[in-house]
Amino acid sequence: MEVHYLVFVLCVIWHGTDAIMWNLAPNTQKCLKEELHANVLVAGEYEVTEVTGQRVDYIIRDSKDHILSQRDSITKGKFTFVTENYDTFEVCFISKVPPERRGVAQDVMLDIKIGIEAKNYEGIGEAAKLKPMELELKRLEDLSEAIVQDFTLMRKREEEMRDTNVSIVLMFQSPQTTASYSSVYSPWHVSWVSPRGRFSTFAGISRPKSSLNSTL
């Protein structure tokens, strides 16, 4: 089954924006992936156009393939879960069409809210008998905490990227690595991982090189 990943920035899609919609082709699946802190509430609402003889399932997993929520043959509904650890989570919608049928694409609408956006503050205020001002202060307190957590996550990502870049530079600065690489490939062969998870190549074609003194 073909898999497509819809990659979005944390603060754009997962932080209380309008719902998104896309076409789900027959017998394919599309997933949204994001990193989240521990103890974060996630609430989602979805709707799928119905097509006779076709079904769409959804599944929510972490990086260890632990299932947080799952449902088959969906049309419209909601889901909620709370993250236990800092991890990468994905929400996948899967189209399933029998081989004997000619499938058609289905529209999928998804609205995801996390953290304070997912909380029902009206219900919290009623349960705790909070005054309007007290409830607003509670919301602002939660918002401040969420902002601090987001900046902490951004700083952690920055440090991880810096460590990775330093490791790569040190690796390619070593004489053994330089000689080994230059003896086989030209510096024009460059690869990267695209957002869809595929390897792509650009900037020229690999070619043999005979000199071991060449550098990158």
UniProtKB/TrEMBL annotation:
UniProt keyword annotation of DNA damage present: no
Membrane topology category: Single-pass type I membrane protein
Pfam families: EMP24_GP25L
Keywords in alphabetical order: Developmental protein, Membrane, Signal, Transmembrane, Transmembrane helix
UniProt cross-references to InterPro entries, sorted A to Z: Emp24-like, GOLD_dom
Domain GOLD as annotated: residue spans: 29-114
Any one annotated GO CC term: membrane
Signal peptide positions on this chain: 1-19
Locations listed in the record: Membrane
Family stated for the protein in its record: Belongs to the EMP24/GP25L family.
Name of the featured protein: GOLD domain-containing protein
Source organism of the structure: Chrysodeixis includens
